[in-house]
C-alpha cells in the first residue's frame, strides 16, 4: 500500500486498502443494495438469472487504464449519442458528469 496516499483522512473512516482491477477482473459481482450484500463468484460457477426489476450492464475494463467503463447513450436534442462513462463507486459522490464541447455534451 502506498503510504503517501491517505484515504482514511479523506473518508473519515479507517481504510485498509483499495480493491482494484487485479481483483475485479477475475470475478462476477452480485450487488444487492436493498439486502445490503455483495456476493463474489468465480465466472465458471456463476449462473445468470433473469430479473425483471434488475438493471444489467456490461462493464468494459480497458487494459491500458485498468478501470471499469460502461457505454451509455445521451439524449442530445432529438438524437442519441454514445458516451463512455467511468464507474468510480469508491469516490463517495453519486454522479459526476462533465461538459465536453467536442462531443456537444453540455
Characterize the structure shown:
With 106 residues, this protein is mainly beta. The relative contact order is 0.11. The protein starts with 6 loop residues before the first helix and ends in a 20-residue tail after the last strand. The protein has one domain (7-103). The strands form two sheets. The chain has a three-stranded antiparallel sheet, with no helix packed on it. It has a two-stranded antiparallel ribbon with strand order 1-2. Helix content is 8%, strand content 27%.
Task: Give a quick precis of the structure.
The chain is built from two helices and five strands. With 106 residues, the protein is mainly beta.
Properties at a glance:
globular, 106 residues, three-stranded antiparallel sheet, mainly beta, two-stranded antiparallel ribbon
Provide the structure class. mainly beta
Mean pLDDT: 76
Helix content: under 10%
Largest sheet: 3 strands, antiparallel
Amino acid at each position: 500500500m502506498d503510504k503517501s496516499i491517505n484515504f482514511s483522512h479523506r473518508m473519515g473512516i479507517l481504510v485498509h486498502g483499495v480493491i482494484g482491477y487485479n481483483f475485479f477482473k477475475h470475478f462476477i459481482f452480485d450487488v444487492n443494495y436493498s439486502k445490503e450484500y455483495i456476493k463474489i463468484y468465480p465466472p465458471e460457477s456463476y449462473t445468470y438469472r433473469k430479473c425483471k426489476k434488475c438493471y444489467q450492464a456490461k462493464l468494459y475494463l480497458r487494459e491500458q487504464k485498468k478501470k471499469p467503463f460502461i457505454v451509455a447513450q445521451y439524449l442530445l436534442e432529438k438524437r442519441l449519442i454514445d458516451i463512455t462513462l467511468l464507474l468510480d463507486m469508491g469516490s463517495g459522490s453519486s454522479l459526476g458528469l462533465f461538459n465536453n464541447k467536442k462531443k456537444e455534451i453540455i
